[in-house]
Amino acid sequence: MPFLDFVAGCISGAVGLTVGHPLDTVKVRLQTQSVYQGLLHCVSETYTHEGLHGFFKGMTFPLLSAGLINSIAFGSYSTALDLLTGSRHSDPSQRKPASAAHVFTAGSFAGLTQLSVSIPIDLVKVRLQGQTSADQYRGSVHCVDEILKKEGPRGLFKGGTALAIRDLLSYGLYFLSYELICEALTEAGKEPGMFSIMTAGGLAGVLSWALATPMDVVKARLQMSEAGGRTYNGILDCMRTSVKEEGVRVFFKGVALNSVRAFPVNAITFLSYERLMKLFHSG
């Protein structure tokens, strides 16, 4: 049943977000604030001034919604792949073989379907992670309320185009690299084991974030532009201004951190998803 894919995606998404949120907070600050001299300096300053709580800012809202986003993404991917391959099984072990083009297309479709939910959620997360004191936003609900008051409903979708460009390509690569690596690490005729799943999931996360980071930087800066950050007139203006002031290297801010964070997060996400699917279909 397609419903099971959505349930498994929901649970695995929440688990993965819990693992990776502290490093995601550091990444957002490095990308949007120039006061930090590097990764260790950002970690040190955050801990010194805000304690451990500082690394978990903005987590409640995405934690409650990460399940929904992952549910939509994994469920849409599975459904699209079934349609493209002519398969009627949501059980991965019974699905007909898919070409690389089918997998990439289904992955990109998954990236597209989750955007309506992920854009406002990601905006709130970035705004909360980007503030270094509690003066501006007191929490997720207050943040949403302030955005609606000052920027209107459209304010919740700021940076949405950049996020869409990021996710359409990176989700396609995400699922494609996972399937290819997992297949390469699994003996023919056998189901993938824990090592294969976690390695493939981790590497898929690293590869997709390597592709996504340049547009992720642009997205984060656009999202912060009405919250004390630099104001930009769209994606191209943000890119031009950022390169002029900081050089081309600006688009790779946080890429190392994204990679470090991506491996364990996506290893756990895929392992949770695959194990849940196996459990559901064994009952």
TrEMBL record:
PANTHER family: MITOCHONDRIAL BASIC AMINO ACIDS TRANSPORTER-RELATED, SOLUTE CARRIER FAMILY 25 MEMBER 45. This is Solute carrier family 25 member 45. It is a multi-pass membrane protein. It holds the Pfam family Mito_carr. One of its GO terms (molecular function) is transmembrane transporter activity. It is found in: Mitochondrion inner membrane. GO terms for cellular component: mitochondrial inner membrane. Solcar repeats lie at residues 1-83, 98-184, 192-279. The keyword Aminoacyl-tRNA synthetase does not apply. Its main location: mitochondrion. It comes from Takifugu bimaculatus. SUPFAM superfamilies: Mitochondrial carrier. InterPro entries: MCP, MCP_dom_sf, MCP_transmembrane, Mitochondrial_Carrier. Keywords: Membrane, Mitochondrion, Mitochondrion inner membrane, Repeat, Transmembrane, Transmembrane helix, Transport. Belongs to the mitochondrial carrier (TC 2.A.29) family.
